[in-house]
Design brief:
With 193 residues, the protein is of the alpha+beta class. The chain is built from six helices and five strands; from the N terminus they run ααααβββαβαβ. The protein has a three-stranded mixed sheet. Strands 4-5 form a two-stranded antiparallel sheet.
């Protein structure tokens, strides 16, 4: 810096009471100045420069570089209309947003599910479903799943239902000719409302 030009001002504040009892002595000694030298520099408007900011640590290899957006306006100005405000508002979740799983089986007793504490496989008091290698029961109008859906829709007409027939993938591919990955199972989603 040239002589006679004012030095750039940096924020450097020391309370006199702290400087005399030694609480900030470490900071002043890092700059290499004594208390008296710092006070004299402040009075003469010759404030010492702040220590350099340490460099930002490098990101991990493979981390994509995301440049900052060149925004002419702050994003909140895009929220003048109620429709846009609703689109940008925080997400709120209520009990109406959750799906409650109900498992129904043809047995005579309710059995707990091991993976979901508090959920049970509920009994259905009829004859056992005959399993087949082709998954015919899934398409039986009088089968367990269609009967359960009809019963629930009679009691709760506004209910949206999602059923998982748990068919083997080979059964689905032969019945519907849908190309699924070999490690999955077919899940049909019904909005019967």
């Amino acid at each position: 810096m040239q002589q006679g030009l004012p030095r750039p001002l940096h924020l450097f504040a020391v309370r006199a009471s702290d400087s005399h009892n030694g609480n900030h002595a470490g900071l002043l000694h890092k700059l290499g100045l004594s208390d008296a030298e710092c006070e004299a520099a402040v009075v003469a408007s010759n404030v010492p420069e702040a220590p350099p900011i340490p460099p930002k640590p490098a990101s991990l290899v493979g981390t994509p570089v995301v440049p900052s957006l060149p925004l002419n306006r702050r994003p909140r100005h895009n929220r003048r209309m109620p429709v846009l405000r609703e689109a940008f508002q925080e997400t709120t979740i209520s009990p109406a947003n959750f799906v409650y799983p109900i498992f129904i089986h043809e047995g005579e007793e309710d059995t707990p599910t091991g993976a979901m504490p508090g959920c049970y496989r509920l009994r259905w008091r009829h004859e056992l479903v005959q399993e087949s290698s082709t998954g015919n029961e899934a398409y039986n109008d009088n089968g367990l799943v269609p009967r359960s859906i009809r019963l629930l829709k009679d009691k709760f007409p506004d209910l949206d239902m999602y059923d998982n027939l748990s068919q083997k993938i080979e059964d689905v591919m032969t019945a519907k000719a849908i190309p699924f990955p070999l490690d999955g199972e077919y899940t049909s989603f019904l909005n019967t409302g």
